Amino acid sequence: MSIADHRFEPPERLARSLGAGPADETAHAWLAKLPHTVQEYLERWELTPERVVTPGGRSSMLVLVRQSDGTPAALKLALPDGRAALEHAALTAWHGLGAVRPLRADTEAGVLLLERLSGEVSLRSLTEPKAVLEATATLQRLWVRPPQDHPFPSVADGTARLAGAVREYGAQPWAAEARALAEEALDLREALTAGGQEPDCLLHGAYEQGKVLAGSRAPWLAVGPRPLVGERAYDLAWLVRDRVDTLLASPGSGAGARRRVTRLADALDVDAERLRGWTLFRATHAGLSALAHGSRPAGELLLEFAAML
Fold first, then answer.
1. Distance CA 283, CA 119 (A)
2. CB–CB of 237/278 below 8 Å?
3. For the domain that residue 233 is a member of, what is the CATH number?
4. pLDDT band at 1, cuts 50/70/90?
5. CA 7 vs CA 31, 36, 140: distances in Å
6. Among 84, 245, 262, 288, which residue's Cβ finds the most Cβ atoms within 10 Å?
7. Which domain of life is it from (predicted)?
8. According to the model, what pLDDT value does residue 23 have?
9. Which of the listed residues 60, 84, 116 is the one where a domain comes to its end?
10. Residues 47, 52, 55, CA angle at the centre, nearest 5°?
11. Is the pLDDT at 104 greater than 90, yes or no?
12. 5 falls in which pLDDT band (50, 70, 90)?
């Protein structure tokens, strides 16, 4: 094996996120091999590297590259845990409509080559009203009928793991003050997955303003899906939570949070009560997870937001 190029060492945020658990030998081995893996795919796909994106994400590494014809692209490397295959399947189904285009893939290895977007410019760079308008317009383009024989989990199956985490965290002594909220979130999730939903759509699964980047062939394109199939209210929930720190710092923040639910539900013809339920569930899960992993300010902020709903 050739000597690894230190330019391709994992960014600190990624190493800290995936390397935090000493028992996770798979993640540690993947991080250690990452510089070699980058070099392997640069050679295999005839790519010229420009730079590693920093601080980058918490679950993948992105290297800005140029293809052999000089076209800019982005090489994304993630743990080979199956998520890249789902991401590639969703991006392929969207055909570049509202989302980044995949150029090449080795999904078993967790490696994707994507069209280059302006990673420094997301919808968060816009004023809130403009960002919400663009975010909802882009999201609607992603809500298509799932392909036949698709590999995507349902919202019910996808949230079963989240519910397990809420149940586990909610039982911990440090979560005593959030226990009632955790129980409400679990009850809501149970009711929401019991039936009465609209026909299934292909969902982004992790949609927020920061996941919508400026592009050259379209003004705004979504990246980083965690695709599922199910009702649209689940996908819309994270937009309700966006810029939560600004919301909670405003007078009448509780009423403001509820108005967000109503406005977004009306704008996209989604049932407001189901949107409220999914928002509360997802915010509670995220808040408890943040507390469990030592991010107290973020966790408390999300749980305060969930309680307002």
1. 26
2. yes
3. 3.90.1200.10
4. very low
5. 14, 11, 39
6. 288
7. Bacteria
8. 53
9. 116
10. 155
11. yes
12. low
Q: What is the mean pLDDT of residues 77-84?
A: 94
**Contacts by residues 157-165 (CB-CB < 8 Å, ≥ 24 positions apart):** 158/205, 158/228, 158/230, 159/189, 159/193, 159/234, 159/281, 162/189, 162/281, 162/282, 162/285, 163/189, 163/285, 165/285, 165/288, 165/289
Mean pLDDT of 116-125: 94
C-alpha radius of gyration, the chain, whole number: 20
- 0.85 cut: is pTM over it? yes
The answer to whether the CB of 98 falls within 8 A of the CB of 43 is no
Mean pLDDT, to the nearest integer, of 46-58? 93
In the predicted structure, residue 16 carries a pLDDT above the cut 80: yes
Instruction: Identify whether residues 141 and 280 lie together within a single domain.
Output: yes
Residue 54 is part of which domain span?
6-116
Is residue 1 situated within a structural domain? no
Question: Given this model, what pLDDT does residue 26 score?
Answer: 84
Q: Is the pLDDT of residue 39 over 60?
A: yes
Of the three residues 116, 151, 175, the one that is the final residue of a domain is: 116
List own/partner pairs for 242-248 with CB under 8 A and 24 or more apart: 242/131, 242/132, 242/135, 242/208, 242/209, 243/124, 243/128, 243/209, 244/301, 244/302, 244/305, 245/301, 246/128, 247/305, 248/301, 248/304, 248/305
Same domain, 158 and 131: yes
Tell me the sheet residues that pair with 66: 48, 72
CA–CA dist 267, 257 (Å, integer): 16
Q: Return d(Cα 83, Cα 152) in angstroms, integer.
A: 10
**Bond preceding residue 55 cis, omega within 30 of 0:** yes
pLDDT at res. 239? 94
Measure the CA–CA gap between 19 and 24, rounded to whole angstroms: 8
